[in-house]
Amino acid sequence: MFEDLEPRKKPAALKDLTDLGIAELEEHIAFLKSEIVRTEKEIEKKKAVRDRAASVFK
């Protein structure tokens, strides 16, 4: 449906973790967790828009 209109992007390349220390790895985990939360919020917004649009065409 609307997902077909979204641009398709390739996922970012994975970060090389071998040279990072424990503190840097923990910071990286914290960053990734915050990105997950941000992404989940964006998904919820898009679902709400999709659901509102779908309710108009019922």
Q: What would the keywords be for this entry?
A:
58 residues; 1 helix; 60% helix
Short description, anyone?
With 58 residues, the chain is mainly alpha-helical. Helix content is 60%, strand content 0%.
Structure explained in plain terms:
The structure is a single chain. The chain is mainly alpha-helical. The chain has a domain at 19-58. The protein is built from one helix and no strands. The radius of gyration is 17 Å and the shape is elongated. The model has no long low-confidence stretch (mean pLDDT 89).
The low-confidence parts are none
How does the major sheet shape up? none
Strands, total number: 0
Based on CA atoms alone, the radius of gyration comes out at 17 Å
Strand coverage percent: under 5%
Main structural class: mainly alpha
Amino-to-carboxy terminus distance: 15 Å
The helix/strand order is: H
**Principal-axes shape call:** elongated
Helix content: 55-70%
- Name the average pLDDT: 89
Give the helix tally. Answer: 1
List the helices and strands and how they pair.
Elements lengths: L21 H35 L2
